[in-house]
Backbone:
């Protein structure tokens, strides 16, 4: 299979907006009387509405997973894997990608207006769980006239949504693709998230969460949070290869007091600043808390085998060797629980030195694993349509 | 060998202060016309001044390595390993532990007065390298009338000083004990340090480093830096065992909006706040930069074998299995370079789930390795004195 660079792009795409008028009661008990979702679709829904795939984004993702927005020079965040002839093939599937509530790219969240008060939500946007995203996605599913997802796919927090779908609405998906994910965060995972949140909250421009109302933004705190996240997304090996101990400025040899700066420092500071200009601090706090709270088996007496006993779909689990945020061992826990629960599971342990970020980046083995699995899914749908056609 | 808890403590100790009047030209080219060192000693110097051991502290350490200060309920930072009958045996060795320049426990550094200006140094304290600490330690050595260290011992940055001693003054030490250390930092190590520095610098109370002059302190930034450091000192396993996903407040089951806080969050916030009350932010920046800059073989064409070719002492290298800040592989690099350079090296790879912090914590295997090595050193000194006695 050739690299994704040889394949066609989706081309220009336009986001759509829908206001969900049906009340959504969140896990925390608060009800959203209505909520807005921004989403994109790629490919065509087939005659029996059976070829729909849901893409679930992670912490900082958006609805813009593939193709180009008018005037943009770079494509959506998962363009390497979504498109005609790509692993998630838009010539065979109808692919739905939304911005989830609580995020900051147009769907209801801390930067949007609370319809009940007319004020911006800010830090008062309610606490969320992954299941709330699933429920909101289910409303979008109804809106689009889809009864069953051919697959629900996501990496990291996206994989958690795919797993939650399999337990909450087992009859509404045929396949769950769980990439670089975990059934729950470790203490270390939570620790990094907490430091990121404290970085944001101790920025004086955070204003106890009311920065939008005061026309400020905790840019320094959010940049720090992102820098820290970034280090945990990359592998030690990759950082060594990419930056090593190369200097950006200064020198060790001159006996001068000029500042010495390593390339990795400059890179991280750039990444932090770029992110803080494009993401919302309250959303970052809210979604990292979602990650911390996620515990697949909590309501199943902490037993993941019991949890997955409720699933009816097939599973593809994918991990990356150098991912230390959600290490391969965390994926193997998922696989073992699925096997013990008697489920149909495929597991692809991909060699990669790209760390957790590997799930977003081009990788032929990963592409092959995803493409061949989903190709079988598409073949199954075609056969099923064929069979129905034969009967009528 | 029994655990250290069964052994005797040094008891009450008092720090001493000495002003070094000899100018010290730093690696950056700046000259300190004089500098102050605070130090403690444990045990007695023998007749021929041959039983002295130098203890080198790491990032946040001080001269107070063992025993108790008047009124203190907790002992020095390495009390588990220093004392009569302990691994670093004060009944056989004369143990010298100093606060290095640039730190903040009484020796010249950002919180002390620049004698040339009469003003507090603050952020203007010159940039330091590990070799500057070694030179300052050499002045203390002369002051104490010591010609050769029986051993120079340190963990982490302390181990870097021990290695630097072996190259800069090969004739002045018989043994170097290098614990949980590395020949240079990786890009990931530097990345974490840079995030910590940026956390401090983006605290408005940092005042571009002039916070002391303005009677402020970047407590939030320094706390963040420490929280981050702390996560990298602990292993994922240990954090899992110690905290897991236990909650400190709130509950997942009540459908209430009360905040949910994990134990690990509370613990880290406590550690961060405690540290920022006792350490200086400019010192933290200065010493993390020292760590980043350290590169054992830089002036030896980047060849550690060539570097260690200059050493004359014996080496003990110790690593800890769960240390991911300076992983065992980093210690093995040291060992391999020493072997290739034809040096006498012992290596103890200790099993521990305590992460990088293991070098500070009780561990029988570690204690045995250190004690048996140093016991042979002491035996050698005794035999040498005996032989001299026989000759006269």
Residues:
């Amino acid at each position: 299979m050739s690299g994704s660079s040889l394949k066609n792009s989706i081309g220009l795409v336009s986001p759509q907006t829908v206001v969900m008028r049906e009340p959504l009661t969140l896990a925390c008990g608060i009800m959203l009387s209505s909520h807005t979702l921004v989403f994109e679709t790629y490919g065509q829904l087939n005659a029996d509405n059976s070829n729909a795939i849901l893409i679930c984004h992670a912490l900082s993702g958006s609805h813009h997973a593939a193709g180009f927005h008018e005037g943009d020079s770079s494509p959506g965040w998962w363009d390497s894997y979504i498109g005609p002839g790509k692993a998630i093939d838009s010539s065979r599937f109808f692919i739905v990608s939304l911005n989830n509530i609580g995020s900051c790219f147009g769907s209801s969240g801390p930067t949007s207006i609370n319809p009940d008060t007319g004020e911006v939500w800010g830090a008062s946007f309610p606490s969320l769980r992954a299941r709330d995203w699933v429920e909101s996605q289910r409303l979008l599913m109804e809106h689009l006239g889809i009864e069953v997802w051919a697959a629900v796919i996501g990496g990291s927090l996206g994989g958690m949504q795919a797993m939650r779908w399999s337990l909450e609405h087992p009859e509404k998906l045929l396949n769950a693709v769980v990439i670089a994910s975990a059934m729950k965060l470790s203490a270390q995972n939570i620790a990094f998230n907490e430091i990121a949140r404290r970085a944001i909250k101790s920025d004086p421009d955070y204003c106890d969460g009311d920065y939008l109302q005061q026309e400020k933004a905790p840019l320094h705190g959010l940049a720090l949070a992102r820098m820290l996240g970034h280090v945990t997304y990359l592998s030690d090996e990759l950082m060594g290869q990419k930056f090593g101990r190369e200097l950006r400025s200064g020198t060790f040899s001159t006996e001068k007091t000029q500042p010495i700066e390593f390339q990795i420092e400059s890179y991280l500071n750039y990444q932090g600043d770029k992110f803080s200009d494009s993401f919302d601090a309250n959303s970052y706090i809210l979604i990292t808390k979602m990650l911390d709270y996620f515990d697949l088996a909590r309501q199943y007496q902490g037993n993941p085998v019991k949890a997955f006993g409720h699933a009816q779909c097939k599973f593809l689990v994918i991990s990356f060797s150098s991912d230390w945020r959600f290490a391969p061992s965390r994926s193997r826990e998922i696989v073992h629980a699925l096997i013990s629960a008697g489920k149909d599971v495929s597991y692809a342990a991909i060699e990669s030195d790209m760390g957790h970020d590997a799930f977003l980046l081009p990788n032929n083995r990963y592409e092959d694993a995803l493409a061949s699995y989903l190709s079988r899914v598409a073949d199954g749908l075609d056969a099923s349509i064929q069979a129905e056609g034969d009967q009528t």
User: Anything to note?
Assistant: Chain A has two domains: 4-184+296-391, 185-293. The longest strand of chain A covers residues 35-42.
